[in-house]
UniProtKB/TrEMBL annotation:
Residues 3-174, 181-241 form the RecA family profile domain. Keywords: ATP-binding, Cell cycle, Coiled coil, DNA-binding, Meiosis, Nucleotide-binding, Nucleus. The chain holds residues 97 to 337 of 340 of the full protein. Belongs to the RecA family. DMC1 subfamily. It is found in: Nucleus. This is Uncharacterized protein. One of its GO terms (biological process) is reciprocal meiotic recombination. Its main location: nucleus. GO terms for cellular component: condensed nuclear chromosome. GO terms for molecular function: ATP binding; ATP-dependent DNA damage sensor activity; DNA strand exchange activity; double-stranded DNA binding; single-stranded DNA binding. It comes from Euplotes crassus.
Length: 241
């Protein structure tokens, strides 16, 4: 069995909370309301994943599955500069593909496995995991079918995480705000995807806004890490203390 690697978030407070960073061989899920920094966080980790292991990196390439059309090359270049990496090379090492449907998402996961047999990767990002499932299974009666298909996709992601010693880092949405729709009489701070998602994610991180550009991360559900929270910032150079 290969040695687990911890990839830095860009914030030492955050890394301390995670006992080192985003770990390989497992699935980490980050959820929170809009603009809490989920996409900025995964962008930062796309860059740190390429750093040498001695610098908190994963020393590998990245696969980024974009389901919300929010991947921004300009942000990657800025973050690369902060870590003294060549912006263009850093961008080239991130293979980005869009997925609007569950079929496409599954196809990309299979292709990712193929690529990992040829080259060294350290990270797979899915931003966000539930978007294609929400599109493909929008009816109420389709929920149990959706969950079944979701379970299969997540188990494939788990398999590649273990087989290729990569971190799978996915973002997730929260339940709609009850104030916006009376039909959702639920906790708005709940990640979607139900029990299937809860069981698949080894580490679940909940982000919320703090003061100004400050954000707070709370460990939501982890068998290994003690509950706790940390404060970090979103900067031009990515996530920082
Ligand atoms: P959504 O649920 O809508 O996808 P998200 O959690 O992915 O939201 P992000 O897009 O990661 O949210 O975060 C957006 C926030 O990041 C902005 O509101 C802004 O505060 C901050 N931000 C974005 N770019 C920069 C930058 N260059 N410098 C500083 N802060 C930035
Ligand atoms: Mg986002």
């Amino acid at each position: 069995r290969k040695k687990m690697v911890f990839i830095s978030t860009g914030s030492s407070n955050f890394d301390t909370l995670l006992c080192g960073g985003i770990e390989t061989q497992s699935i980490t899920e980050v959820f929170g309301e809009f603009r809490t920094g989920k996409t900025q966080l995964v962008h930062t980790v796309c860059v740190t994943a390429q750093l040498p292991k001695s610098m908190g990196g994963g020393q590998g390439k990245v696969i980024y599955i974009d389901t919300e059309c929010t991947f921004r090359p300009e942000r990657i270049k800025k973050i690369a500069e902060r870590f003294d990496l060549d912006p263009e090379k850093t961008l080239e090492n991130i293979l980005v593909a869009e997925a609007w449907t569950v079929d496409r998402l599954n196809q990309l996961i299979s292709q990712a496995a193929g690529l990992m047999m040829e080259d060294t990767f350290s990270l797979v990002v899915v931003d966000s995991i539930m978007a294609p499932f929400r599109v493909d299974f929008s009816g109420r009666g389709e929920l149990s079918e959706r969950q079944q298909v979701l379970g299969k996709t997540l188990s494939r992601l788990h398999k590649i995480a273990e087989q290729f010693n990569v971190a799978v880092f996915m973002t997730n949405q929260v339940m709609a705000d009850p104030g916006m729709n009376a039909a959702y009489a639920v906790d708005p701070k709940k990640p979607i995807g139900g029990n299937i998602m809860a069981h698949a994610s080894t580490t679940r991180l909940y982000l919320r806004k703090g003061r100004g550009e400050q954000r707070v991360c709370k460990i939501f559900d982890s068998p290994l890490i003690a509950e706790g929270e940390c404060v970090f910032q979103i900067t031009d150079g990515g996530i920082a203390d």
